[in-house]
Structure prediction request, 124 residues.
Amino acid sequence: MREPRWLDDAEVGRHLRPYAITGGRTRHSRHTFTLITLVVSRSTREARHEDLEPESAQILGLCRDRAVAVAEIAAHLDLPVSVVKILCGDLLNASLIIVQAPPGQDDQPSVELIERVMDGIRRL
Prediction:
């Protein structure tokens, strides 16, 4: 019989921290983000947001000068993507960020249009 394995403080913190940051939420109730959704802060100057979680303030700082993909934010902050999506949803609700979602299926050009463009390029 195996002895029970106890988690050390670092392992407990790694699992508890995302839960605490999101208040136990596993997804945002109103917004859906993909890995390539671009996020940019609405304010270009450094603002103080005492009521924000430190991670939310870090997102604003990271996205202050350029648009950053959700996946890149997660990598920079060393947080799970699901946590970043929830935090970005909260920031969007507070009108602190602007997001640009990737084009949907309806926004993509038709295959016929792409073929016509390719034919035109070949004729050059």
About this structure: The helical segments are 9-22, 54-62, 70-77, 81-93, 111-123. The first strand starts at residue 38 and ends at 41. The CA atoms of residues 1 and 39 lie 51 Å apart. Strands lie at 38-41, 68-69, 97-100.
